[in-house]
Description:
This is NrtR DNA-binding winged helix domain-containing protein. It holds the Pfam family WHD_NrtR. Residues 250-310 form the NrtR DNA-binding winged helix domain. Residues 1-20 are annotated as: Disordered. InterPro entries: NMN_biosyn (IPR011213), NUDIX_hydrolase-like_dom_sf (IPR015797), WH-like_DNA-bd_sf (IPR036388), WH_DNA-bd_sf (IPR036390), WHD_NrtR (IPR054105). The protein is of the alpha+beta class and 332 residues long. It has three domains: 23-128, Nucleoside Triphosphate Pyrophosphohydrolase, CATH 3.90.79; 132-222, no CATH class; 244-317, Winged helix-like DNA-binding domain superfamily/Winged helix DNA-binding domain (Arc Repressor Mutant, subunit A). Helix content is 30%, strand content 19%. It has helices at residues 65-77, 143-156, 161-175, 191-200, 205-210, 229-243, 260-271, 277-287, 314-317, and strands at residues 23-35, 38-45, 51-52, 55-57, 84-90, 101-110, 121-126, 290-297, 305-310. The strands form two sheets. Strands 1, 2, 3, 4, 5, 6 and 7 form a seven-stranded mixed sheet that branches. A two-stranded antiparallel sheet has the order 8-9. Helix 4 (191-200) runs antiparallel to helix 6.
Amino acid sequence: MPATPLTHPTPEADRPDAPEPGLAIGLSAVIVAVTGDDPKVLTLRHEDGRDSLPSGPLERGHRTLEVGLRTWVERQTLQELGHVEQLYTFGDRDRGEDGARSLSLAYLALVREARPAGDTDAAWQSWYRYFPWEDWRDGRPAVLDSLDHGLRAWAAGAASSRMGEMRAERVALCFGGTAGGSEAGWNEERVLERYELLYEAGLVGEALRERGSERAAPGPSGSEMREDHRRMLALAIARLRGKIKYRPVVFELMPPSFTLGQLQRAVEALSGIRLHKQNFRRLIEQQRLVEETGETTAETGGRPARLVRFRREVLLERPAPGVRLPGGFGRR
C-alpha cells in the first residue's frame, strides 16, 4: 500500500543538503501470538500469492504515529492492540516510488491469538513459514542442506580470495561453524543477520525480485513477503528471542493461567530450541516468576497438572526478571 507524501519538492531539491523532494511514511505492525507449539504472526494475503504485514500510510488525520498504526491494524484485521513498541525505521534511499523518499516504521505487538477479520484477507501464520531454518526444536533443519550449498557457492564466487574469506567468515558467524552449522554453534538471536546474508547471496525470493530475476529462489527458502516485510519480521523475531532472556515478555502471550509445560513450550516455540525440562522448571521457581492458582487441569492428557499465573510483583522486585535462556536452562 503506497504511503502518502508528506512534503513537496523544493526549488533547491538538487542540492545535497536540500530537503527530500518527497517524504512518505508507512506504518507496519509485526503482531505475534503463540498457539500451542507454534509462534504466529498476523499477515495479509494478496492476489500475487505473497503475504504482508498489516500496514498503511501515515495520514494527516492520524494524531500520532501509533494512532495511525492502530487504525490500520483494526481496519485490516479487527485486531485491537495492547502495548506496542517501535522496532526500527527503514529508510534506504531506494525505497519508495516515483522519486519520493519512503520511510517505514515497524512496530512489534504481542497479543493472545484472536480470529482476524476486516477489509483484507488476514490470517495467522507460523513465523517458521517464512524462516524454516530458524526452527531447531527437532534438530538441525533439513532446509540448511540446500542453503549450505548456496552459501558455499556464493563465498567461492567472490571477486577475490580475500573477499571469499570474508564471506566464509560471515557465513560461519551467522550459521555456526560451517555454512550448514551445528547446534553447538547456533546463536538463535542472529535471525536478521542470517536473513540479510541469504538476501545478499541471492538465496531468498525477495532478493531475486529486487534484481529483476524471473527465476525462483533455490531450494525451500521460506515464503516470500511483500516489500521488506520479511526483513521486519526477522528483526522482530531477533528482538523477542533476546528480550525473553531479561524481560518477562513471554507472559504477555500466555493465558491468565497455564501449566509450566505450556510455558516451556511457548518459550521453545519463540526461541526455536528445546530446553531441559527440569532445568527450566528449577530456574522459573528460583526466580519466582509464577505463583500457583490452586487449580489443576486435565487437558495435558495425563494426571492433572497444576495451573500457575505470572507473579507481577516480580516487576517491582528486580530490574530484569527474564527467563534467561538458553544458557541458564541448557538444551535437551
